[in-house]
Predict the structure.
Amino acid sequence: MKADYDASRVEKLARSLMTYKKQYYTGKPLVSDAVYDKLEQELRSVSPQHPVLSYVGAAPSTGAPKATHDMPMLSLNKTYRIEDLQSWMGEETIVGTPKVDGNSLSLLYENGVFKQAKTRGDGRVGEDVTDKVLWIADCLPRLPKDLTIEVRGEVYCSQHQFALLVDDMLERNLERPNNPRNIVAGLLGRKVHIDLCRYFNFFAFEAIGLTGLKTEVDKFETLHGLGFSVVDHRLLKKPKDVEGYLEEIKQWMDDDEVAYDGAVFSYNSLALQQSLGNTSHHPRFKLSFKWQGMTAQSLVKRIDWFPSRLGIITPVAVIEGVALSGATITNVTLHNAEHVKAYNLKQGDLIEIVRSGEVIPKFMQVLESAPGNYQWPTNCPSCKTPLTFDGVRLKCENRDACPAQRSGFILNWMRAVEVEDISEKRLDQMMQMGLVEHVYDLYTLNVSDFLRLPSTKDKMAEKLYKNIQASKNVPLAKFLNGLGIEGAGLRTWEKLIEHFQTLESIQSVSAEALIEIDGFAEKSALQIVEGLKERKAIIKQLLKVGVNPIVQKSKFATGEGPLAGQQFVITGALSMPREQIERLIREAGGKASTSVSKNTSVLVTNEGDSGSSKMKKAKELGIPIWTEEALLKMLSEG
Ligand SMILES: [Zn+2]
C-alpha cells in the first residue's frame, strides 16, 4: 500500500467492492460498470495486491442447478491505457474485437448436438441454463459437423430487442426491467417465462476442442463457418495500429444496437497463447481495454423532441446541469421514441449518463424511476402534422412543407457540396426573411440578398455568394450525397457511378438492378430507388438553377494506375479497415469486389491456407493469391 494513502479509505474501498462483486453475480448489480471500474482502479493504484482484487465472484445463487466448468472461465485482465496495451503487444500480431457488454455463456456440443449450456458463475462453477438457451436462436441446436466441442461467447440483449422484451414483460404483468444487461442475467436465472430468452442473441468467441487451428483469426472464421455469429475482428500488426483501431471502433460502437464496454485483444498465434497460459485469475494472452468514459447521474427536468431532416423526431432530455469530462452537461440524447417507451423515461427520473471523450453525452440507464408514464408528442413540433410511429421512431411525414425538415435538408446539402460559413442560425435567418425556401433557392441569391442579413458586411456577403456559386460544379457523387437519401452514403454513390455513369441512368435504375450489384442489400436498394423518386422535382430544380454534377471517369475505366484493369477480392482480417484497402485499390486503377468469380484477378488474404470458401474457389479457378503485404508493395511501387 502507498504510505501516504489513508488506510481507512482503502478499507472502505475494499468493503464496497466486495459488496458490489457479490451483488453483481446475483444478476442485480448495485452500481454501473463504470462506477465499479473507477473504484477498482483506485484500489489497484494504492494497493495492487489487495485480495479483494483477485476475488472472482460469489457463488451463484439464483436457484438453477449448479454445473462445474471443465476449464475455468476466467475473467480478463484490463487496462485503461493505450501504452499498456502497446507494451503488452510488443512485437506480436494481435487480434482486436469490440467487447460486448453481456453475460458469458458456455455451450457444450457432443457429436454435433447441443447438450448443455452453463453460465460463467464464479468461473469454476456456473449454473445449468440449458432449457433457457434453447430459446436463443444464435445458440445453434446442431452443428453442421460431427464435433464434440465447447463454444464460449457472450449472450446479450440489443436495444431494439430490449424494447420488445419490455412490452412482452409488461403484458405478462412482470416487473419492468431496468436495462438490457441485468435482464439477461435475470432471465437466465429464472424458472418461469423462460421463453422470454428468445429476445437474446449470442456472439461466439471461443472454441475448445477444435483441432487444426493455428490462429485466433482461424478460430473466428471457423466459428462463423459453423453458423455462429461472431463480432467484428481485426488483425493488428504494429503497436501504432492500436490507437487508430480503437478510435475507429469507438465511432460505430456508440451508435450500434449492441452495447459494448471496451475492446478485447488476443495474441493471434494460438501456439503462443498455449505457451503463455493463465494466471489463477486471467489468461496472459488476452487483455481488455476500457475507455476512461465518465458517468454521472442527474434528474430529468423535461424531455424535448426535435425533428431531423428526414422527419425523425428525436427525444432529448433536459437535465439538471452536471459536470462531466470537463463540461457542464444539460442535454442528453435519448436515442429514439422506442427508447423512451422501453425505459419509461419522463420528468423526475434519476438517470445515469455517459460521455467519453468528445462524444455527445448519452443516456445509459434509469437509476430511480419517477411515478407515472412516459409521453410521446402527437404532433410535429415544427409543422404540427400528426406523427406516425414506424416501430422504433416517431416521424413527421410532411416532408416538403415541414420547415424543420427543409432546413435540415439544406444544411445537409451544404455540408455535402462543401458550402462553408452558413451556420444553422444564419440559415434560419435566411428562411425567416424569405430568402430561401428550398435548397435550390440558394443558387438564385445575389450579393445584395446576403447584405440584408444581420451583421453581414460587404466582404462576408461576397464570400457567401462565391461559396454557393462555386458549389455549382460538384462531383456527381457529392451531388447525390447532398440529397440525403437514407440507406446511401458517399461511398454508395461512388459505387453506383462506377456502374451506371450518369445521373439519368442512376435515376432510372430499378431496385432489382441494384441488388444485382456486388454486396448491395435489398433494404438500401429500395430506400435508394424510393429516395431518388421522391427527390425527382428537387433534382430537376437544382439542374435548372445551374448546378452541374460532374462525372469523373474512374481509373478502372480509363486503365490508369499500377493495378489497372485488375479485380480484387479480399478475405479474412487485414491490418486496416476493408473500406480503406478497397479505396487504395480503386485509386490504383483496380476494382474491389466481394465474391470470387472467373473475372477475379487476385485474391488477397493474410491467412495462408485457411480453407475458406473464397480460397477454395480461387484455387479451383487458378487465381493468384497475394498477401496484404504483397498488395501494399505493388501499390507503393506504382
Ligand atoms: Zn413537421
About this structure: The chain has six domains: 7-54, 66-289, 294-369, 403-471, 475-552, 556-637. The domain at 403-471 is CATH 1.10.150.20 (DNA polymerase; domain 1). The first helix runs from residue 7 to 24.
